[in-house]
Amino acid sequence: YSSGMEFDPGDGRWLAEEIDMAQAAGHIVKASILGPITLLWLGKERDGLLNRLELLPGLVDAYVHLLSLMLARGVEWIQVEEPIASLDMPDLWAGAMHAAYDVLSRRSPRLLLTSYYSFPSGCFDILCQLPVSGLHVDFTRNFRLGALRCFPRDMVLSAGAVDGRHVWSCDLSATARILDRARDMARLDDRLWVSTSCSLMHVPVDAATEAAVSMSVRPMLSFAIQKAGEVAALKIRLTHGNAGSAISHASPSRSFKPAVGFGTEDLQLTPRRKLGYADRARLQRSALGLPVLPTTTVGSFPQTPRFRQLRVLLRRGSIRLQSYMGAIRAEIEHIVRRQAELGMDVLVHGEVERGDMVEYFGESMDGFVITRHGWVQSYGSRCAKPPIIAHDVSFVRPMTLYWASYASKLTNLPMKGMVTGPTTIVCWSFARRDQSYQEVSLQVARALRLEVELLGSSGVGIIQIDEPALREGLPLQRAMRRRYLAWAADAFGVACSGTSPCVQIHTHICYSELGDVLQTMSDMDADVVSIEAARSNMSPLALLRGFHKGVGPGVFDVHSPQLPSQEAMASRITAALGIVPPENL
């Protein structure tokens, strides 16, 4: 956001068309838009703007126009989503929210202010004072029943009682009891709505399509369609009692393997490498012989339509495995040769064989369930198919060793082994509900430790353990973050704790607010940390002044359509050298 920025709502034709389509299909329309406070919160100040809240009055005027358009088309309820309310919201922003909704509520139909991903403990009282017609809150994470005692008598409460972020079926009896208590405590009567905790975009569409999933797991699954059924079943239970609901539930049972559990308990005691960074760095300089300012890439090369189609044909049985493997080998050979020709110092094999950086590992470890149709939106038009952690996780067979070894034999230059880190695997999977994330991540870390040991002992001298989800998994409430970051660092330490000190461990932290995880980056004890810096004009590097380990700042933004000039990249490297010592860059 920049000073003097103006907001033009346009003619709203796209919105009118969507409302008309929904009404033509016979639906009662509840429109949904992102709220103005969250929209401002998610941006950054540029070009002399000191506080983006200065732009709020103009933004609210644009929202008034959109709300008026919806009112004119007969929309009775508008869901205005303000997930910022689930954070530890500063007082200044809380005051801005009140000012914004004072204006919006006078110019619009009934507003349902919606927060999600966690119960808004820190500002629930503030939300209750807003001049809106209803409030939606998450009942599934950090819910405080006692907070409802002061809920307004003239406001609808939409209870996010069915968890929209995991794939396990709802315990209808227990949830109905919570809703009954909430209705009594807030004296809601007919002002209680039953809903999912958040949008169902986070889960796949229909568990009934997963015929290949084991019957020990399938009855416990609940995707979007099943969750909608659970919401309907809860309504029936609340209005007619248990006899009115024919939908059963099944909670995932604990399948605990003592060997796995004891292993993770032992590893919690010594989750670190044997030598400190300074001693390791000396050994690695001697072993690797890298030049000053060594160049490399983060790792994965584009998944071309050709290889996506080859995987489809392989699954259908239309091509032989030998043909598929031959195509992968040829592509890796091409990738390795081109990197060497271009003068790269540390090569990667491109991860051509991996359709997804998490599912690939889930397919090769015990404890994961892989779906056929379990797609969810990741961002924009990109979708992912997260694996499901249904049992205890353990190592079964080497996952990356074959292709890393093959690529290493194609060159005399150092070749990076590529492993997805434990926190990212857990955060980008559907985890069990009967175990803590800490316990699951340590199980995954133990399995990955064996993989990393195999890579190191086979002669792979540099191993990158990717943790792009480290910041993404950070709890919304600051009070809960220290514990999360501690076990994330421990899990990473477990994954690389069995390697020789001569093996250089890299990690990749992408598109993160580094200030939130800076200490953890040090605690993880990687030898080199790669970060996204080009998109932010190298500004994240300012936080790394005094960081005593290797840093790999990205100088080429691979997600940008703009091709940077050599001069621009050289300027970025010069800026980095002003902060990071050359021996660490």
From TrEMBL:
The gene is metE. InterPro entries: Cbl-indep_Met_Synth_N (IPR013215), Met_Synth_C/arc (IPR002629), UROD/MetE-like_sf (IPR038071). Its cofactor is Zn(2+). NCBIfam families: PRK05222.1. Residues 293-585 form the Cobalamin-independent methionine synthase MetE C-terminal/archaeal domain. Pfam families: Meth_synt_1 (PF08267), Meth_synt_2 (PF01717). Transmembrane segments: none annotated. It is an enzyme of class 2 (transferase). Catalyzes the transfer of a methyl group from 5-methyltetrahydrofolate to homocysteine resulting in methionine formation. GO terms for biological process: methionine biosynthetic process; methylation. Its EC number is 2.1.1.14. This is 5-methyltetrahydropteroyltriglutamate--homocysteine S-methyltransferase. Residues 13-184 form the Cobalamin-independent methionine synthase MetE N-terminal domain. Belongs to the vitamin-B12 independent methionine synthase family. GO terms for molecular function: 5-methyltetrahydropteroyltriglutamate-homocysteine S-methyltransferase activity; zinc ion binding. Pathway: Amino-acid biosynthesis; L-methionine biosynthesis via de novo pathway; L-methionine from L-homocysteine (MetE route): step 1/1. Keywords: Amino-acid biosynthesis, Metal-binding, Methionine biosynthesis, Methyltransferase, Transferase, Zinc.
